[in-house]
Write a structure and sequence with these properties.
Blueprint lengths: L2 E9 L5 E9 L2 E6 L8 E4 L4 E4 L1 E6 L12 H10 L2 E6 L10 H14 L3 E4 L15 H5 L6 E2 L8 H13 L4 E3 L12 E2 L2 H6 L3 E2 L2 H17 L3 E3 L5 H12 L4 E5 L1 H5 L21 H12 L5 E2 L28 H10 L6 H15 L15 E11 L18 E11 L2 E5 L5
Parallel strand pairs: 1-4, 6-7, 7-8, 9-10, 10-13, 11-12, 13-14, 14-15
Antiparallel strand pairs: 1-2, 2-3, 5-16, 16-17, 17-18
Length: 427
C-alpha cells in the first residue's frame, strides 16, 4: 500500500530541521521532497513531530518460548513499537534454546505470526547455552539470524571461544558476547564497591567483565571475527575496547541507557528493579561510558530489555533475577538527559539508536533514504510525560525509572510502510 507523510520534519545532514514529504510504496521509501506529486492511498499528517529512521535494538529478551509469563514475542514487539523500534535482535536464552535449525525455525514461525516489528533472532554459540559444545554454527549461519551469542552466560573456555570465532568468521557472522568470568563473581548481586559494602550484599567485581573482554579481543584479532561486546559497564572495559580498536581489531560495543544514567549510588534501597547484570557500577565507570560513547569507543545504545514478573522481582536484590525493561523508556530518557542537557545532539542520539546499530551489524535499516525499507519513527519532542510502568505494553514492569519526568514521546511507528503503533490523539 502507498503512504504519504506530509509536514514531516526531518534532520538533514547538517543537523538542521527541514520540512518535507515522504512517499512510500510497497514498503520502501520512493521519494523525499518539499512537495511531492505522488498520490497515496493513505496520507498521514506529521505536523508537530520529528520524523526519524526507525530505531534498531541489537539486545532484547523476548522470553518466548519458555518464559511467556515474563514476555511474549507479541507483547515484546508491541513494546518495541511503542518505543519507536522497528528492528530488534532477540537473545537466545529461551527454553528450548535456538541452538539448532529446528528450534530456530519454530521461533521464526512465532515471529512471523505474532511480531509487529522486525525481529532478527540470535542463535546460541553453544548447545543449551552450557558453554561446553559448539552449536552447528555453519548450519545456523545460513538462516536469518543476527549473529551468535550465549548472552546471559559468559563463555568460560578460551579455546571454545576461539573455535566459535573461527566458525563465525568463516560464515561472516558476528560473535556477540556477554562478558563475565565466573571465577571472579563470588556470588555477587550488585557492584563490588560502595553499594555492596553499605548494603552488606556480595559484590560483582569489575574485573569479571573486563578480563573476558581483554581475552576476547585478542581471540578476535587472531581469527578475524567481528566481535561485539554487550552492555559495557566498566571503565576498564572501555579502555580495553578503545585500545583494541586502535589496534585495528574488528570489535564493536554497546552501552545501555541505565548504565549511562545511573550508578551504584542510586541503589539506596533493597529494590530489585535496580538489579541488572552487569550491575550499576561506580561514578567513574558511568563517566567513562559516556566518554566512550562520545569518542566512538562504544558504537551504539542498546536496551538489554529484560522483562520479569512482579512476583520474581519482589523478593529483594539478593534473590531476584537480574534485568530491567527498557524498550518503552529508552528514547525519552536519552533525549531528556543527554540531548536536552547538551551532552549530545539529537542527530547523534538518533544515530546511536538507529543508524549505528544497523551499520555495525550490516543491516539495511536505520536510515531515511530512497530505496530503503520505510521504517519510520515519529516523535513529539515537546511532549512532557512521566514514565508510568502501569501503562507499559510489555508484560514486564521492572524498571528503576518509574515516575521519572521526561520530554519527548513516540507517537507513531511504521515498519516497511505499515503503521504498527500510533497514539490515539495522533491518529
Amino acid at each position: 500500500m502507498s503512504l504519504l507523510l506530509t509536514n514531516a520534519t526531518i534532520l538533514n545532514n547538517n543537523n538542521e530541521e527541514q520540512l518535507c514529504e515522504i512517499f512510500v510504496d510497497d514498503g520502501k521509501i520512493v521519494s523525499i521532497g518539499k512537495k511531492l506529486s505522488e498520490k497515496a492511498k493513505q496520507v498521514i499528517d506529521c505536523k508537530g513531530t520529528l520524523v526519524s529512521p526507525g530505531f534498531v535494538d541489537v539486545h532484547v529478551h523476548l522470553r518466548e518460548p519458555g518464559g511467556e509469563h515474563k514476555e511474549t514475542i507479541e507483547t515484546g514487539t508491541k513494546s518495541a513499537a511503542r518505543g519507536g523500534y522497528t528492528t530488534i535482535c532477540s537473545m537466545p536464552n529461551t527454553n528450548p534454546v535456538p541452538d539448532n535449525v529446528d528450534t530456530l525455525a519454530n521461533i521464526q514461525k512465532v515471529i512471523d505470526e505474532t511480531a509487529v516489528v522486525r525481529v532478527l533472532p540470535y542463535a546460541a554459540i553453544t548447545t543449551n547455552l552450557e558453554g561446553t559444545t559448539l552449536s552447528n554454527i555453519q548450519a545456523l549461519a545460513e538462516k536469518s539470524i543476527a549473529g551468535f551469542t550465549d548472552d546471559g552466560v559468559g563463555i568460560q573456555s578460551a579455546g571454545l571461544m576461539y573455535e566459535a570465532m573461527q566458525e563465525a568468521a568463516a560464515n561472516n557472522r558476528p560473535i556477540v558476547a556477554h562478558c563475565e568470568d565466573n571465577s571472579l563473581l563470588y556470588g555477587g548481586a550488585v557492584h563490588k564497591g560502595e553499594v555492596s559494602e553499605r548494603m552488606n550484599i556480595p559484590g560483582i567485581l569489575s574485573l569479571s567483565e573486563s578480563v573476558h573482554i581483554a581475552r576476547d579481543v585478542l581471540l578476535a584479532e587472531a581469527t578475524g571475527c567481528h566481535y561485539h561486546v554487550c552492555h559495557v559497564s566498566t571503565k576498564e572495559s572501555v579502555r580495553v575496547i578503545r585500545d583494541a580498536k586502535r589496534a585495528g581489531i574488528h570489535v564493536t560495543a554497546e552501552v545501555s541507557p541505565h548504565h549511562l544514567l545511573l550508578n551504584e549510588t542510586d541503589v539506596t534501597v533493597d529494590d530489585a528493579n535496580l538489579k541488572m547484570n552487569p550491575p550499576l557500577r561506580g561514578k567513574e565507570d558511568q563517566e567513562a561510558l559516556l566518554e566512550g560513547l562520545l569518542d566512538g569507543t562504544l558504537d551504539c545504545i542498546a536496551t538489554d530489555h529484560a522483562p520479569h514478573s512482579e512476583e520474581e522481582k519482589s523478593v529483594g536484590i539478593e534473590q531476584a533475577p537480574f534485568g530491567i525493561v527498557g524498550l518503552e523508556t529508552a528514547f525519552p530518557l536519552m533525549y531528556t538527559h543527554l540531548v536536552k542537557k547538551g551532552i549530545i545532539t539529537l542527530r547523534e542520539l538518533i544515530d546511536y539508536m538507529a543508524k549505528k546499530p544497523a551499520e555495525i551489524f550490516n543491516l539495511p535499516y536505520g536510515t531515511l533514504e530512497i530505496g530503503q525499507s520505510a521504517d519510520i519513527t515519529c516523535i513529539d519532542l515537546q511532549a512532557d510525560h512521566v514514565i508510568d510502568k502501569e501503562t507499559f505494553v510489555s508484560k514486564g514492569m521492572n524498571t528503576p525509572f518509574n515516575g521519572w519526568d521526561c520530554k519527548g514521546r513516540i507517537v507513531r511507528t511504521i515498519v516497511a510502510g505499515e503503521v504498527v503503533f500510533e497514539e490515539a490523539d495522533h491518529a
